[in-house]
Please model this.
Amino acid sequence: MSAIRPPSGLVPAGAESDRAAQLARLLPRARELVERWERSWGPVQGHPALAVDDQRLECAWKELADRIAGHYPFFHPRFAGQMLKPPHPVAAAAYLAAMLVNPNNHALDGGPAASEMERDVVGRLAGMLGLGAGALGHLTSSGTIANLEALWVARELHPERGVLFSEQAHYTHARMCAVLRMPARAVPADAEGRIDLDAADRALAGGDYGTLVLTAGTTGLGAVDRIDEALELRERHGVRLHVDAAYGGFFAVLTDASEPLVPVAPLRAMAQCDSVVVDPHKHGLQPYGCGAVLFADARVGRLYKHESPYTYFTSDALHLGEISLECSRAGAAAAALWLTLEALPPTAEEGLGAVLSAGLRAARELAGRLTASELLELHVAPELDIVTYFPRVDGGAGALSAIDAASTAMLELGATDADPVFLSLLRLDRAALLARHPGLRDDVAAAAVVRSVLMKPEHEPAVPWLAERLEALAAAALRA
Ligand SMILES: *Cc1c(COP(=O)(O)O)cnc(C)c1O
Model:
């Protein structure tokens, strides 16, 4: 990309982020920490096989820099699209330190200290979700694998029955049900993107489904299913309740806040479900490679029983590999999450709570500005920090095909402008769009709207700038 125009008014003098300073301070400390530890074991004679040719490396390094420069600026408020942001410097430093040691959290032999940190953070996550001391869980490499594991446990406990989820649930539920050869069915969501519990009730009545998946923070709209109202379905139909809180699970820390800004009762009800998945690499400030699955009843651990001839020799204590489908996993992920939760504790008013609240305020502020706009239409009021909207074609009476084209144009114009803004699109079917905007003309089955995930606190001070840029992009898209 050529010559980026400095975003006027975005950053007042002296208000620059201290992220760079935190990285400069912490990354050398990570290296020093490991160097000191390595030296304590006595010297090691090096081996020429590991030497690198300076010139060859220099050349490749330059190419690496070019390749890295090809990314979108996830760290910047300009990036107001997908669910992406860099890890907190604290997480990066802990990850670097532990990664240089490279523990494997499959078994205690592979990483005793990192396994202990994993147990600590899983305990903290269980506490945050209200699951209590009886819960069993572990980190995973992703939310998808964590959900796979919860669905696998569901299948072991209800071998003849399938899985029910909403049409707004993450697409990997259908895929993982196929992997597990479980019958799967999607029931409709309401106009706000939440599962229709009456439809779920009717679908469960036949007894064909043994598990209901609820979503706390859908990937598209950030909608939180009414988990509190779904609890009675477990008793009535004898099903398991699994919550996919990959995106929204961390918002549970705000349920105790004086001004929570989140749907309190549904998030609190996660505590009463059978299993919960949460992704520290989404809202826990972690680098990718960090999901988590938690089970309310630790007795599901018996389902994992297996014998491995090469591991588990060091102690009788439970090995994480004994309660997880994956084998090798980065112990560094546990260390990074551990240090992060020490430095930024999962509490309502400070630490993680302050991080999450800033994004929620940013989303509400942007939604308010979009509601007042003549050029843009808010799609739904954000329940969390995801805002969806589209250009007002024909004064709000446009055809779905024209809205699709104008939303797509906003995305393209934003990415190529000299003062760029990176957005994302969400495809919605006609029923969802018309339920919210009855004036629209229904000429095609679905249309894309624009979606901005405001998951960085840095978005909060940037909202006036962002709203102005979105209006300019909408005006250009409507002209095009
Ligand atoms: C992101 C997401 C997933 C998938 O998690 P990965 O970590 O990307 O594999 C599942 N469910 C929801 C609700 C998500 O937002």
